Amino acid sequence: MAIRLEDKKAIVAEVNETATSALSLVIADARGVTVDAMTALRSQARENGVTLRVVRNTLAKRALEGTDYECVNSTLVGPSLFGFSMEDPGAAARLFKDFAKENSKFEVKALAVSGQLLGADQLDVLAKLPTRDQALSMLMSVMKAPVTKLAQTMNEVPGKLVRTLAAVKDQKEAA
């Protein structure tokens, strides 16, 4: 069924708006995946802050013009499922990676981060990025380590003095 011009413009505007605010983009081919599996994928995507869209390639190319994801135009061949990560750069990659393990017909075509096109083989790199909370906890542990070590060192000096005095006392009592 043909899409009216107004509807096409609305789709292009909506995808462009999503692309300008997205942190990363993962493109996959979902031919052969069952409807139930796709419904489950969409549900998981909503939970993880990932926007999924199926858009015609010609409309997608127009929508991605002037965004960081214009670099993916060369990979837009055949049906494409777009996964835009809105909150966490690795969210869509993790979602698609896990979904591809369960569905052999689901194939990741390409991904893009900050205007850089990555091949499907780089999916693990993006998927292994820590979430915001994980990154903050790692940063806090790095910041906390020197202070903890200083406190332990400062506490060790009086403790060593007390142990030395106790050893001298035991030695004098034994003599």
UniProtKB/TrEMBL annotation:
<dbReference type="GO" id="GO:0003735">
    <property type="term" value="F:structural constituent of ribosome"/>
</dbReference>
<comment type="subunit">
    <text>Part of the ribosomal stalk of the 50S ribosomal subunit. The N-terminus interacts with L11 and the large rRNA to form the base of the stalk. The C-terminus forms an elongated spine to which L12 dimers bind in a sequential fashion forming a multimeric L10(L12)X complex.</text>
</comment>
<dbReference type="Pfam" id="PF00466">
    <property type="entry name" value="Ribosomal_L10"/>
</dbReference>
<dbReference type="InterPro" id="IPR002363">
    <property type="entry name" value="Ribosomal_uL10_CS_bac"/>
</dbReference>
<dbReference type="InterPro" id="IPR001790">
    <property type="entry name" value="Ribosomal_uL10"/>
</dbReference>
<comment type="function">
    <text>Forms part of the ribosomal stalk, playing a central role in the interaction of the ribosome with GTP-bound translation factors.</text>
</comment>
<dbReference type="GO" id="GO:0006412">
    <property type="term" value="P:translation"/>
</dbReference>
<dbReference type="InterPro" id="IPR022973">
    <property type="entry name" value="Ribosomal_uL10_bac"/>
</dbReference>
<comment type="similarity">
    <text>Belongs to the universal ribosomal protein uL10 family.</text>
</comment>
<dbReference type="GO" id="GO:0070180">
    <property type="term" value="F:large ribosomal subunit rRNA binding"/>
</dbReference>
<keyword id="KW-0694">RNA-binding</keyword>
<keyword id="KW-0687">Ribonucleoprotein</keyword>
<protein>
    <recommendedName>
        <fullName>Large ribosomal subunit protein uL10</fullName>
    </recommendedName>
</protein>
<dbReference type="InterPro" id="IPR047865">
    <property type="entry name" value="Ribosomal_uL10_bac_type"/>
</dbReference>
<dbReference type="GO" id="GO:0015934">
    <property type="term" value="C:large ribosomal subunit"/>
</dbReference>
<keyword id="KW-0699">rRNA-binding</keyword>
<keyword id="KW-0689">Ribosomal protein</keyword>
<dbReference type="InterPro" id="IPR043141">
    <property type="entry name" value="Ribosomal_uL10-like_sf"/>
</dbReference>
